[in-house]
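Quick one, tokens below. Sequence please?
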């Protein structure tokens, strides 16, 4: 779970203020947040609202990268928690559509109105591209509403819960940490801390290169 106010800006633009001042719950590694934990997070004193974000690992548009993440989320609410920076078209509002990241769109010449195949080793679905977005840190390489990728043979798992809180964020962070204590794979961050972690990850790659 991430809670925070100020969001640092990466000098090269790898990260910017795509996260408002909200807490975010994240399951680390291969862990996931079960429905009971998500419900407890939403019921935590000081939590105004909570948005679970599910994802699966799949190939998007036949991309060779097996680690592409497809996000399933209530897109009407997502923009209140995280800005994926849509640069063309819009986020989907029905199961027939998905938005794709700019990196996927550029690699496969996709645009609003294109068709895209999302596949795992167990199955695939074809969806209409509704939009293209820039930020992948939370959204992954494709965004659909819940159920949009239900037939690919892999069940989406809740990896994040983004939370809007009232009052002091440190107090909210402490309460959410207590809630998450029963789930060792669940981590609680401030928004500032989570973005800083992601920034360090982005900085490490070019440094090693």
């Amino acid at each position: 779970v991430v809670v925070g106010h100020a969001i640092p800006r990466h000098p090269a633009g790898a990260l910017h203020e795509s996260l408002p001042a909200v807490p975010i719950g994240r399951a680390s590694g291969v862990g996931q947040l079960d429905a009971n934990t998500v419900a407890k997070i939403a019921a935590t004193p000081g939590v105004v609202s909570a948005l679970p974000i599910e994802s699966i690992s799949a190939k998007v548009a036949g991309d060779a990268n097996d680690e592409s993440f497809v996000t399933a989320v209530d897109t009407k609410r997502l923009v209140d928690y995280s800005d994926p920076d849509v640069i063309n078209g819009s986020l989907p509002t029905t199961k027939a559509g998905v938005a794709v990241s700019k990196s996927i769109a550029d690699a496969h010449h996709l645009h609003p109105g294109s068709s895209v195949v999302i596949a795992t080793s167990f199955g695939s679905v074809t969806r209409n591209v509704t939009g293209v977005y820039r930020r992948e840190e939370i959204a992954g390489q494709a965004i659909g509403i819940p159920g949009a990728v239900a037939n690919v043979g892999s069940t989406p798992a809740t990896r994040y819960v983004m939370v809007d809180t009232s009052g002091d964020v440190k107090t909210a962070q402490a309460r959410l940490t207590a809630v998450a204590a029963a789930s060792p794979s669940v981590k609680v961050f401030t928004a500032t801390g989570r973005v800083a972690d992601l920034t360090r990850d982005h900085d490490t790659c070019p440094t090693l290169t």
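The longest strand covers residues 47-57. Confidence is low (pLDDT under 50) at residues 1-17, 205-209.
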